[in-house]
Amino acid sequence: MSDVEDFSGKSGRNETREEQLDRNWAELLQELRVLQTGVQILAGFLLTLPFQQRFKELDQFQVTLYLVNVVIAALTTAFILLPVSVHRRLFRQRLKEMLVSSADTITKLALAGVGMLSVGTAALVFDVTAGRSAGLTAGGILLAVLLVLLIYVPLRLNRRARGR
């Protein structure tokens, strides 16, 4: 578990293991709330597109990209809701460590979904408004930027923190 604290009790805080798990759970839920807002905005945007006049003018590639984005939005929403569902099933079974650990993994998957949805939506908008090569270029550049921001930067910061 890289993002969730080590449960060995060496968090540098004066808290019990249960308090640490409770805090980690609360932090994960807050992160999921932030993700949920972003996904809702993008999904809402996508859901309005078929009702626009120009939607009928989309070519097959654009319609396919649109539908892929809708599927990614739905799956990402499911990943964001999954920790709450798991919590309901594990509630009062003294499995908080498993809950926090699985929610950490699920949150990483939701982050990947948000990244893919952002790339796909930007590619679609650029493709429709500025042409295919602009759409592919925008999608590729955004993908590269998101890989750096969502994967490389956290890994680098983690490495630096462990080096201290």
Protein model, in words:
- The relative contact order is 0.11.
- The protein is elongated and about 60 Å long.
- With 164 residues, it is mostly helical.
- The model has no long low-confidence stretch (mean pLDDT 88).
- The chain has helices at 17-48, 60-90, 96-130, 132-163.
List the helices and strands and how they pair.
Layout: H1 17-48, H2 60-90, H3 96-130, H4 132-163
Helix pairs in contact: 1-2, 1-3, 2-3, 3-4
Order of helix and strand elements from N to C terminus: HHHH
Which strand-content bin applies to the residues? under 5%
Number of strands: 0
The low-confidence parts are none
Number of helices: 4
Please outline the major beta sheet.
none
Q: Give the overall shape, derived from the CA principal axes.
A: elongated
Q: Give helix % range.
A: over 70%
First-to-last CA distance: 18 Å
- Rg, rounded, reads 19 Å
The chain-level structural class is mainly alpha
Give the overall pLDDT as a whole number. 88
